[in-house]
Amino acid sequence: MPSVFQTHIEILLVEDNLTDVLITQDALAEIHMHNTIHVVDDGEKALAFLRNQPPYADAPRPDLILLDWNLPRKNGREVLAEIKADPALQTIPVVVLTTSQAEEDVGKAYNLHANCYVVKPLELDTFVHAVQSIRHFWLNVAILPVE
């Protein structure tokens, strides 16, 4: 259903930095919305999750993907390219959430059809606000396609 009508939100966080995972989870928990955050720590696991491959055979389709750009095994560029090339996945909004401010990375993300590119702020309060803003926009303001 479009996001405005959803009562439960599934978020896939693809992040290999445990501190960033914990901060992101805390920021989303502060909103007091019904959401489930699934975390995978590398690009290969992200694609297995999205394709319901073992050990993620029962994984739900996420309503939003928060994707780190610098990941082990398969980096964010490769993951994003595969998501956006797959007709079954390409409509899931992907927000690149990374420390890189490089113009090359920003350009590459949008060329690969990222829905948004957000640089992780260094200050905790600003980081929390950024994550909450992402969640609010993509799951409360934007209307997403029905899958």
Describe this structure in words.
Helices cover 39% and strands 17% of the residues. α1 links the parallel β1 (9-14) and β2 (35-40). The chain is built from 5 helices and 5 strands; from the N terminus they run βαβαβαβαβα. It has one domain: 3-Layer(aba) Sandwich (Rossmann fold). α1 (18-29) crosses α5. The chain is globular, with a radius of gyration of 14 Å. It is of the alpha/beta class and 147 residues long. It has a 5-stranded parallel sheet with strand order 2-1-3-4-5, sandwiched between helices.
Which short descriptors sum up this protein?
147 residues, alpha/beta, Rossmann fold, five-stranded parallel sheet, 5 helices, 5 strands, disordered N terminus
Share of residues in strands: 15-25%
Figure out the total of helices. 5
Distance between the termini: 7 Å
The number of distinct β-strands equals 5
The first-level CATH class is given as Alpha Beta
Q: Give the biggest beta sheet.
A: 5 strands, parallel
The helix content is: 25-40%
State the shape: globular
Proper CATH architecture: 3-Layer(aba) Sandwich
Number of domains: 1
Reading side by side through the largest sheet, how are the strands ordered? 2-1-3-4-5
CATH superfamily membership: Response regulator
Which segments are poorly predicted (pLDDT under 50) over 5 or more consecutive residues?
1-5
Structural class: alpha/beta
